[in-house]
Amino acid sequence: MDEDKIRKAFEAYGIEHEITCPQAFEISEKYSIPKMDIARYCNQREPRIKIRGCQLGCFK
Question: Is the predicted pLDDT of residue 9 greater than 70, yes or no?
Answer without folding.
Answer: yes
